[in-house]
Amino acid sequence: MKTILITGCSTGIGHTVAHGLQRQGWRVFASARQPADVARLRSEGLNDALQLDVDDSLSINRALGDVLAATGGTLDALFNNAGFGQPGAAEDISRHALRAQFETNLFGAWELTSRVLPVMRSQGHGRILFNSSVLGFAAMRWRGAYNASKYAMEGLADTLRLELAGTGIHVCLIEPGPITSRFRPNALKKFMDHVNWQHSIHAAAYQAQIDRMEKPGPAAPFTLPAEAVLQAVQQALQARRPAARYRVTVPTKLFWGLKRLLPTRWLDAVLKRAA
Length: 275
Prior knowledge:
52% helix; alpha/beta; seven-stranded parallel beta sheet
């Protein structure tokens, strides 16, 4: 039975992918930050669920140790999925808020990956998946911290893929566009916690963004359920020669094409309208 460790499984993409892979016969180590979420995951049948906070090095080491103890020291795949969005204009994001965005979205994923790599090198194979975003290659307004964290993730993943060539360890980026999840409610909380929006030069624009984040149901056209990401993850795990990138949703594929075709000035005009 193949094994995978997935971060950020309390809701959304991680939750869907964990259950989907288990149904396909994988032994899934679904992790979550809060003990209550771990207990819930176990009650749902994910019996190997465990606590893992990617912001905490001790938690990372402890959780990976538990996984390897359960598997006999092997791990077939890692899906770095945990993350959140910190909205706000770049000039309104404090150093503290930017650091927090990178701690969760990048540094935690990178530390966990670096701990897993010796295991995969020893066994001679492995798959490492990073959950990036359309905003990992197409920047949009009011999302500077999130854009930056995903751009950085893509750079590190691309470098790692080159450095691991010929080892049997494959690195893939999953690039979702709008997906049904709790991403917007969680982002709204981070916005209120870290941005003094009412006193910002961007206050009027922020009000429109708040309305969008508070809107029930899909806030963007072409929003897909998390099962669409599950399909991409399955392809990345099963392909004999996996692709470097798996783009999910129409907006992701559209902006990838536009970025390759349009001059920067034209692309900027499109991205400003899309924000």
